[in-house]
Design goal:
CATH topology of one domain: Aminopeptidase
Shape: globular
Radius of gyration: 21 Å
CATH class of one domain: Alpha Beta
Structural class: alpha/beta
Strand content: 15-25%
Length: 450
């Protein structure tokens, strides 16, 4: 997916002292590779603008997946893009349970992805399928597919960038692994703390930002990853310096590295949502955002292994979600969390897996206030998660229920799962503001009610 010069270029660019070549047509070798380029100490905002405007042009994007019997197509994909009549969140919830991965919601119907073996079940249950197209064919029909996507960071580039950030800011930044994925990749966590490193305990209030629960949502990696760049680039600013001194900040940009690598490995997007678990029926993957122990396996969760919203055989059956569980349980100081997804332009708060508001009125008001403030900064819509549909096994429901963390799901902007590279600048700029706001209340979220 990524041209070799892009790795060198991006690692060089996104350091606290950025390497930059005057002639943009020439590749820049980073200090990670032992050949430092020219440093202009670009600001974060300058970097984003230059990166978006100049470095994405002409980079080649993977082609969409082809049918399984086409030359070089790879793994069989028997999923369909369907449009189904659905007038409310309760119908949408039942469709989730029947194996439909809901992607787009309209007033009277919805569109999404369904495995072939669930179509007969939908008909038996009386659902009206208005449109049914093989997924590969639907993707090929898209007229607004991005022209360049090589700017996004794959697993190795994400790892290299995190390591580079730590080497440049070793007094306050450290890197450790939460554990290994199904395919034994490290799940990296960058920590920013002026007094503790690695997995050492801290009494400071903690905030955690998580990206890429879902593989195809590559923008959800870029936002927390570049948040790390922003915080370390601005470490000497009065407000950021105060948060670094007083808080314990964790950034986990890519929770599902196996799925990410699978999604891009052939040079054609696979629309992969899940991790890479081999299921009992030989289908691939568990939906990590249905695998937490928050009313696990209940409403809105599919028990069909082939479904994109398959919840797995049991809560925390997946090494990726189990790593988050152990991470949270070991850190009683965590007070805020943001889990990034795409695409919808929403700031959502619990409950998502329960058709009711939060019982604790004080906590509910904190959630509403925080979501509203972050929505102002992103131009997104704040709402309770179950407004779209009811879905159990959710990350943020579990984090609040099990640990009392004020946990939010941010559905990033865009017109699809692959919105192109030009969106990075705007999405990152908006969401960094919201992330910094979250830091501003992490010491005591209840203070916003005063």
């Amino acid at each position: 997916m990524i041209k070799r010069f892009a790795l060198s270029l991006l690692v060089a660019l996104f350091c606290s002292h950025f390497s930059f070549a005057a002639d943009v047509a020439k590749p820049v070798l980073s200090e990670v590779e032992g050949q430092p380029g020219k440093s202009d100490n670009l600001s974060f905002n300058q970097l984003l603008k230059q990166f978006s405007a100049e470095y994405t042009a002409g980079l080649q994007m993977p082609e969409p997946p082809m049918p399984a019997d086409s030359e070089g197509a790879g793994v069989q994909d028997d999923r369909y893009w369907i449009t189904v009549q659905a007038a409310d969140r309760y119908v949408r919830t039942r469709l989730l349970e029947a194996g439909v991965d809901i992607v787009e919601i309209r007033k009277n119907d919805l569109s999404g992805i369904a495995p072939k073996d669930s179509l007969a079940l939908l008909a038996q249950k009386g659902y009206t399928i208005e449109k049914k197209v093989p997924l590969w064919q639907y993707i090929q029909s898209l007229k607004d597919f991005p022209a360049a996507d090589a700017a996004y960071h794959n697993y190795q580039e994400t790892t290299d960038l995190l390591k580079s950030l730590v080497s440049k800011n070793s007094d306050i930044a450290s890197l450790f692994s939460l554990g290994k994925s199904v395919e034994k990749r490290e799940i990296w966590c960058l920590r920013i703390n002026s007094a503790a490193k690695g997995t050492a305990s801290s009494g400071k209030p903690g905030a955690v930002y998580i990206g890429n629960h879902h593989a195809r949502e590559h923008l959800s990696n870029e936002v927390p990853l570049l948040l790390a760049v922003y915080l370390l680039d601005h470490r000497n600013d009065a407000d950021i310096g105060k948060y670094i001194a007083g808080l314990d900040i964790y950034i986990i940009p890519m929770l599902n590295p196996d799925g990410v690598e699978y999604d891009i490995r052939t040079g054609r997007y696979q629309w992969q949502r899940k991790n890479m678990r081999v299921n009992s029926n030989k289908s691939i993957g568990v939906d990590l955002n249905r695998n937490y122990d928050s009313w696990f396996g209940g409403q809105g969760a599919s028990h069909y292994p082939s479904a994109d919203t398959y919840c797995g055989p049991s809560a925390f059956s997946e090494p990726e979600t189990l790593a988050v569980k152990k991470f949270v349980e070991a850190r009683k100081n965590l007070t805020t969390m943001n889990s990034y997804h795409s695409y919808g332009g929403l700031i959502m708060y619990p409950w998502g897996g329960k058709d009711a508001p939060i019982d604790n009125e004080k906590d509910r008001q904190v959630f509403i206030k925080m979501a509203s403030e972050m929505a102002k900064l992103t131009n997104y819509t704040p709402e309770q998660s179950n407004e779209m549909y009811i879905a159990t096994g959710d990350t943020c429901d579990w984090a609040y229920d099990a640990a009392g963390i004020f946990a939010f799901t941010t559905e990033l902007e865009g017109r699809g799962f692959y919105p192109g590279a030009a969106i990075i600048e705007k999405a990152v700029t908006r969401n960094v503001k919201a992330a910094v706001y979250m830091l501003s209340v992490t010491d005591n979220p209840y203070k916003i009610l005063k």
